[in-house]
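Issue: ligand-bound run for S-adenosylmethionine - logging full I/O for the record.

Environment: standard queue, default settings, no custom constraints.

Inputs:
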Amino acid sequence: MITYSEIKNDLNLNIDKLLEDDGIAYLTHYWQNHKNGVCKYYKSNAKNYLINEVLNKVEEPLQTYLPFKYDIPFPPVENPKFKFIDLFAGIGGIRLAYQNLGGKCVFSSEWNKFAKKTYEANFGEIPFGDITKIEAREIPDHDILLAGFPCQPFSIAGVSKKKSLGRQHGFLDKTQGTLFFDVARIIEHKKPKAFMLENVKNLVSHDKGNTFKVIKSTLKELGYSVHYKVLNGSHFVPQNRERIIITGFREDIYYDKENFHFPELPERKTVFKDVLDKKVDDKYTLSDNLWTYLQAYKEKHRKKGNGFGFGMTDLNGISRTLSARYYKDGSEILIPQKGKNPRRLTPRECARLQGFPKSFKIPVSDTQGYKQFGNSVTVPLIQAVANKVVNLLSLANE
Ligand SMILES: C[S@@+](CC[C@H](N)C(=O)[O-])C[C@H]1O[C@@H](n2cnc3c(N)ncnc32)[C@H](O)[C@@H]1O
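Outputs:
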């Protein structure tokens, strides 16, 4: 059977040059979904793309290479148990967890071209771009909607003014102009059985609690039960990483059968040194200049009586939270070294600190790699929650 890489070669598809072209997003989505009936959403655009841009004159261009063998780390699941969509997909940390449980991703969206590159290298699919430009009806039906959306304030001022216009759904007014609005409009149109949303812990206190209040009321208004909990990735990886997870289930199909509980989390089995490589390039060791600067900065704040500044990590303990700005100086997670300045983590070590498997590919620069893993999720934590969500799906069918 021909492989995915061979087809890309054969068709002269230079992925690096096509990352911002939705034509290739249609084609890769079509290929991923050719067996499950979802491909109808993508067929026409994928076909046009293939015919006009790639093949010119072939009878059944879309079928020409199907089925093929995906020679990538995380190929689509054969005989999937459920379908899901991956919004604000980043590098697919949430997708990985749900795919591990037998789910088939039928739509993905992410607008950052470097994140798309990592996504394609691992999943063989290029996410569609800006979600605000995508009509909900263009998105295939699915059982679960997944989104780690950016946290933005809702403008309270806009609400009362627009409310007077007597719109049918309050949420349209309350959330317009934010990315949560896009999550809500897709839920409203596609009515998935369940959703799982992920965000920073501060979502609850953001904008004096208004942001979270609007999110909860919107989801309820759309006809879903809403559950949420702050969970720490430190139960699975040696990193302190608290995130809020929100789940919800369609009330009209679950009625009183829904009994969702967040999972009991296990005791962590690893310590920080377990994610470290034995031999690491000297380029990850801090320069004398940077190290002097970081020490002076910390000292300045110590004198003022606060604890700002670098974090030297206890090798037998856990690290601080890996953030998307780790690429700047690495100061939040430093590693002590004997006889040398401390060093920062490598992108591969960041992947481990987030619980990504070793087969996960990192096809981007160190800077992009740090941003991507800092923005991503602790995969095993998401999978523990996913397990509970997926278990409930069967109840909806009874
Ligand atoms: C917190 S990250 C989610 C990371 C993801 N959960 C993962 O595992 O990698 C949010 C992502 O949303 C993307 N994003 C922001 N606005 C977007 C938009 N309008 N359309 C598509 N993606 C967007 C960002 O580029 C970023 O990668």
